[in-house]
Specification:
The protein has about 300 residues and is mainly alpha-helical. It contains 12 helices and 2 strands. A two-stranded antiparallel sheet has the order 1-2. A hairpin with a 4-residue loop joins strand 1 and strand 2. The longest helix has 28 residues. About 35% of the residues are buried. Belongs to the peptidase S54 family.
């Protein structure tokens, strides 16, 4: 005597139940469902949640629509390594190694002097990635200062504004050296080092710390000490320090005190204005010396 086989259970819709499969991998059966969309999700598509699991599609959508955490200055709040700071340090160190390996040829190709910059304007920036090979303290101090100040400013201002601050402070240093060059000898004097950029970071840090209501007296003392050393120790281009500091101070103030609704515009506009002012100042100086601007 055979036993009757019971019919398959009915689904809520009245028809036979359908075996649940992952919508992304239709060949995989899954009885685990996403807590957000209730669709079946296979182990490969499951993501742990506070309660149960979510599917990858819901996780991606939540990440897309979630509000972006920002710093007090409007930059996206990023965790992890300071990419721009490490890249700048890497470029300076790599260039220093090439100075040692290749010799004076590498230095002479990229060093800045007002006379050389008149014909090869890229030297206004490239000199900031060279250092004196006869004094390890030169690159050591600059890279140490960049490592101390860079991550804080990069996180606070964001990568784009921090990079603009660094490069424009470098430019500010070489432009100021050009403006204060008094004779033919000064115009042919070579300048190397990231000190202009570092002093720009010092300058920017003052309004940033003030905006964050943090004590900036230590930075003021450090800038004052290094400023005096520029006049006491021979071979230091204090003009580059001054130019970098002023550019950094101006950009730092613009970034720190920009109204919330204008932060994006100021983040682009302030560097553009600074670039125009610096290029204009160098142009006027070259017109006064040569009667023309060779690089234009």
């Amino acid at each position: 005597m055979s036993n009757p086989v019971p019919p398959p259970p009915a689904s809520s819709a009245g028809g036979p139940d359908v075996v649940p499969v992952c919508p992304r991998h239709t060949d995989r059966v899954s009885y685990v469902r996403c807590q957000r969309c209730a669709r079946p999700t296979c182990p490969e598509c499951q993501r742990p949640a506070a309660v149960g699991v979510h599917c990858v599609d819901c996780v991606r959508e939540a990440a897309r629509t979630a509000p972006v955490a920002r710093t007090a200055f409007g930059a996206p709040l990023r965790q992890g390594r300071p990419v721009v700071t490490l890249t700048l340090i890497g470029l300076c160190v790599a260039s220093f190694v090439l100075q040692l390996v290749v010799g004076s040829a590498w230095t002479q190709t990229w060093i800045f002097s007002p006379a050389a910059g008149a014909f090869e304007p890229w030297r206004f920036l490239t000199a900031g990635f060279l250092h004196s090979t006869g004094m390890l303290l030169h690159i050591g101090f600059n890279m140490y200062a960049l490592w101390l100040l860079g991550p804080l400013l990069e996180q606070a201002l964001g990568r784009g504004r921090f990079l603009a601050l660094y490069l424009l402070s470098t430019l500010g240093g070489t432009v100021m050296f050009t403006l204060l060059a008094t004779d033919v000898v000064d115009f042919r004097t070579g300048v190397v080092g990231a000190s202009g950029a570092v002093f720009g970071l010092f300058g920017a840090l003052l309004p940033v710390l003030r905006r964050m209501r943090r004590d900036a007296r230590g930075i003021v003392v450090l800038v004052a000490i290094n400023g005096v050393l520029g006049f006491v120790v021979p071979g230091i281009a204090w003009e580059a320090h001054l130019g970098g500091f002023l550019v950094g101070l101006a950009l730092g103030a613009a970034f720190a005190y920009a109204p919330r609704r204008l932060r994006g515009a100021v983040g682009v506009g302030a560097p553009v204005v600074a670039l125009v002012v610096l290029v204009g100042a160098a142009t006027v100086r070259y017109l006064g010396v040569y009667g023309t601007v060779p690089f234009l």
